[in-house]
Amino acid sequence: MKALVYQGSGRRSWQEVPDPRIQHPGDVIVRIDAATICGTDLHILKGDVPEVTPGRVLGHEAVGTVASVGSAVETLTVGDRVLVSCISACGRCRYCRESRYGQCLGGGGWILGHLIDGVQAEYVRVPFADNSTHKVPEGVSDEAMVMLADILPTSYEVGVLNAAVRPGDVVAIVGAGPIGLAAILTARLYSPRTIVCIDTADTRLEAARKFGADVLVNPGSESAHEVVDRLTGGLGADCVMEAVGTPGTFEESVRLARAGGHVANIGVHGAPATLHLEDIWIKDLTITTGLVDTCATPTLIDLVAADRLDTAGMVTHRFGLDEIETAYDVFSRPAETGALKVLLTVPR
Fold first, then answer.
1. Which of 78, 136, 138, 209 shows the smallest number of beta carbons within 10 Å?
2. What does R_g of the chain's alpha carbons equal in angstroms?
3. Are 43 and 5 in contact (CB under 8 A)?
4. pTM of structure
């Protein structure tokens, strides 16, 4: 089969690799119907994730059709349409029993496209399949469903829930990429008073407006701190979500929060950031980090199926899976291309 293979920092190739096979009784093999590229894949290609070694098939966001089933799989049969979750869960370890699947001790967690071969391929082996896939509801498209593999649960769990968004809050979101946009979308479920979105790309700020941001700030034109102060009488934002993953955006996020506020870091960081305790030790801040657990994925699927969450507009570019090299080039230059999410499909 063909797959997108990591070849070391800055290098990738679409090439022939061996077909995956059932290795454990709980595995399934899924034929990929639709996949996408995550910002984390770009971090991998920059060398920010050293656990990913050359030869690894990338990708952790896909929808597909079950092609073969291990002997211990109980909930899936050949032909089922499934969402492949970005997080795998053994279902037995301490963390899985606490619904903290991202910290799985039994061989799960974030492994697809990280520690084992991922979904940017014609087929993928999915371990712990009963716990790590979700059947696609009737009437829900592959395009809508694939947004639930990672970015929607990540933004909701690591962003909105960790930031403790409540009705009437002023929410600041730093970064208007796909994660930031999904944070806007899911924060609106809690009726905040004002959502402020901060980004250096005007095209992404315009997308943020369409997804429900009330105030847009380009730091090249105005100070985000001054805008938030005007909105809050100088207090600062109740909730701040960092959705970029650089030292500067993390430090700015902490500065934007009011005393007693919450800062939820969602971004993937490849370099150290400074925590200015000399300034914030007295502010009663709650600062959270985290890897998505995907425990909220069933709820988000229900909301999408009921038309209560609309991910239309998230996908800006569409390619065949065999055009993935071009898709990576487009996705990696969002300021020039306007790319949010790219959809990779296999005609059937």
1. 138
2. 20
3. no
4. 0.95
